[in-house]
Design a protein that fits this description.
This protein is an alpha+beta fold. 50% of the residues lie in helices and 10% in strands. The longest helix is centred in the C-terminal third of the chain and has 39 residues.
Length: 452
Amino acid sequence: MGGSIFASGPEPLFTPRMPPEVYHHVKARCHRALRDLYVCVASPIDGPAKKSFGDVDILVTWSREEIFGLSPEFRRAVSDGPNPRRALEEIMEVLGATKMIREKNDQVAHYAIPWPEEFQDVGREEDTPPRYIQVDVAISPSLQSFEWVLFKQAHGDLWNILGSMIRYCGLSIDETALSIRIPEVEEISRNMAKVKISDDPLVVLSVLGLKADGYWEEPFDSSDDLYEYAATSPFFWIRPIPPETADKLVDDPSVSSPAAQQAIAEDRKALKANDRRRMNTRPCYRGWIEDFIPRCRAEGRFFTKRCTRESVRTEIFSKFPIEAEYNQKRKDHLIRRQREVIWNKHIKGYLQGLPTYEELNPTYRGCMLKGLKRIILEDDRSYGIVPDKAFRDDEGYYLMDRVDEYVQTQHEAVGDAAMARNNAKYEKILEEKKRKQEHGEPTASADEEVGE
């Protein structure tokens, strides 16, 4: 199928796949048109050996108006602030598009342009409806972002392959940078676990152990060439398979053998959900899993694991000044988790497990819980029941044995002090309410106003 965004909805358009000659002609024509509006116009390097194309992807940045514009109309536009929607409409005009669909952020839009007249006979069948071509244009906010997205989207599925390859070592690459992940934070959120390493393409290639020269000017000639390039990274290795499957492969190592197919099934099981989805929609990525890796296994290649999460982290810290940020982010997360555990388990959990807890006055229970929370987690000393020892060590981590000792020995004293404070506040509110009533002023109930 071709570009699919115009294939449904009101007034759908037919956007079939383009043969290479049509694709390259349209891409070059769109680049020329967009250079009237933008200084920087480019498309990512295409995937290997493509026989047809579904759409045309283009990135732009550095509006000529913003860089060179000195006309009164431009100065008025600048004084009114940026207008992303106007920029997308200008792009629609210079492309000669008949239809546009904006993304929500107004930085990306999809355009439908007519199939070029000089190629009307190419790929046309009888009763073919009018053909259009989907052109996707993204406005990058900066030159750095422009260069990074071109890099990240280059070579089709290469970054899907590399991303899955480096994951086990705690590295991630996304639409902004190469990052290292903090294991403890990763259990909660992969995005929050990231610490940026670099967004410089050459630096990233160096970290991944990949050569730059000769590989980033044009597409690979074949998927195999792309696979071999990816496999030069020291992060690549072929995971072991169950011994019984390995024994069968010794007898028949061919890719089509039952044992090899069983090994492929084992490889698929190890994939993340996103990777499994790519297997169904990305032929090049599927070839990496179902063809290249089995062939390497049959040939006895890449069985040695050259990296671990620990070794990669040590090397990254030796080359990039991010260790302090990494450690601080890890520490903040661990302390935040400690606080959650203290409140839910060591305070609430302990008190609610006491045999007499349900017999206590509900207001007293609430005062005791809040009092302990404020003393332990908020360093509140106003209750007058100051702990003999600090709850935290010199690094700021909570010492759980001291927390437990305080809760278990002082909860009644804290409850009494908190209840006394609550009662005093209640009495004060009653007095204020009485004064207002005497002067005819509106009042709220004491229960609504009091709260320990």
